[in-house]
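User: Show me a protein chain along with its predicted structure.
Assistant: Here is one chain, sequence first, then structure tokens.
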Amino acid sequence: MLVIAVAVVVLSLFAPQFSKMGLGKLPGDITVKFRGRLVYLPITTTILISAALTALGRIL
């Protein structure tokens, strides 16, 4: 549980850098404005980052 919390914090901190690289604007990433708040669901970006980290883990 602690690892997941740390991962969420780290990804939240690096979100602006990811958007500059084009991540977060991929097809499948959902942005919805709900009751005046912007709700962002980065489904495709999450899958892409997960696949990259899995490949990196298998190489190491």
